[in-house]
Automatic annotation (TrEMBL):
Protein known as: Undecaprenyl-diphosphatase
Membrane topology: Multi-pass membrane protein
Presence of the UniProt keyword Glycoprotein in the record: no
InterPro entries, per database record: UppP
EC numbers for this chain: 3.6.1.27
The keyword Membrane appears for this protein: yes
Catalysis performed (reactions): di-trans,octa-cis-undecaprenyl diphosphate + H2O = di-trans,octa-cis-undecaprenyl phosphate + phosphate + H(+)
Transmembrane segments: 6-23, 43-63, 90-111, 118-141, 192-212, 218-239, 251-270
Protein species of origin: Halococcus hamelinensis 100A6
Lineage, broadest ranks: Archaea, Methanobacteriati, Methanobacteriota, Stenosarchaea group, Halobacteria
Amino acid sequence: MDLSVVVAFIVGVLQGIFEWLPISSEGNITIYLRVIENLPATVAVQLSLFLHAGTALSAVLYYRGVIADVLRDVPDWRPTDPFARDTAELSFFAVATVVSGVVAIGSYVALSELVTGLGGGVFIAAIGVLLVATGLFQRLARDEGGTRTDPDLLDAVLVGLFQGFAVLPGVSRSGGTTSALLLRGHDGPSSFRLSFVLSIPAALGGALLGVVDDGLPALAPTTALVALVTSAVVGYLTIGALMRIVERVSFWLVCVVLGVLAVLGSTVFLV
């Protein structure tokens, strides 16, 4: 696949920014690669998943203190009461990761069938519909939230389900998981923190899923390195500021608008 270093840099920047916004980084980057760079849909999806490895590194560095605290809870974990206050977050991350992994594999298999079976215009329209649905779900949860800070088993299962479905382009991982936690009565700060720490295994798993299925994206080593390093550096530099912005801006509406534009734009491929 002949992808220039400039395009690799662009998609790296987009991933480093979009990953922290509830607008589906995978969906929007897939649309960019498919429409602007004219890549096949299968390649665009694979590359958009591959880029998550870079932002996973960003999240590891940014949340290194939180990760260290969670790992320190491991010796105190007890199977008789896994969601005890001292180890609730450890159990939450473990259960949600397992659930999301199982759901993501099923979703990816369905996605692979859809990508090969749908025409270019229908595929873009499908991404647009999922973006609209994601935005409306975020609108539903916008005014919710409570005072909870400790997750339980039901939180882990629900968040794992939403995170697993986020392998589908157009479904925002951060938007879906954060909204689910808000609807369950968690406060805003803890919802964002739980969601973004959980993004680390999800991002690595998503990147690995594409590699296992189709092999490494057919990029020159320099191009692949540029894309990954750019997404990691931009992701680390923007995560703090963008998370503060997300708490104040109605990104559900941005998501809906992007979805509508994708649906309308898909007609170009259909005529």
